[in-house]
Amino acid sequence: MTRQTLLLNAWMFPMRIVSWQEAITLWYLGKVDVLEAYDDVVSSPSVTVQIPAVVRLKRSVHHVRRGVKFSRANVFGRDGYRCQYCGARKPRAELSFDHVVPRTAGGRTGWENIVTACRPCNHEKRNRTPEQAGMRLLRRPARPATLPVAPFGFGLIDIPKEWASYCVPVG
Fold this sequence. Notes:
Layout: E1 4-8, E2 14-19, H1 20-28, E3 32-43, E4 48-57, H2 72-78, E5 95-99, E6 114-118, H3 119-125, H4 130-133
Parallel strand pairs: 1-4
Antiparallel strand pairs: 1-2, 3-4, 5-6
């Protein structure tokens, strides 16, 4: 079973996606409320429960924020799942990230040098700067202060219908 569960914070904002097993553990420990469930059920010898689709933390999680973590999914989110060379919006599976200044030319892997690129544009640019490749960036890469509230890592693919009222579309 490949079901996943959307975890919301206490204020009803998406935090992350967890496995249905983790969601059931959090529910059993009394840490979350189940807001939506799939039709599928799991059973133990003593109890049968529906697979949670959306859960909400009962208490707010206090942690120190040090900016948005650098990751492939967060780069795609910052760029709205849009290639920064041709402007095409694509599903996550059709995107890659590109070093604006290639690593061989001293470019680092970080917010200020990585952009979302579709595979054809990334292949066309190859191991060159955009200027050397005759390509133009739509927007210079920068470290974001925040990211859009969205189902992380899903891009343009369909989200489960049970999540729809808890997610804001990307882009």
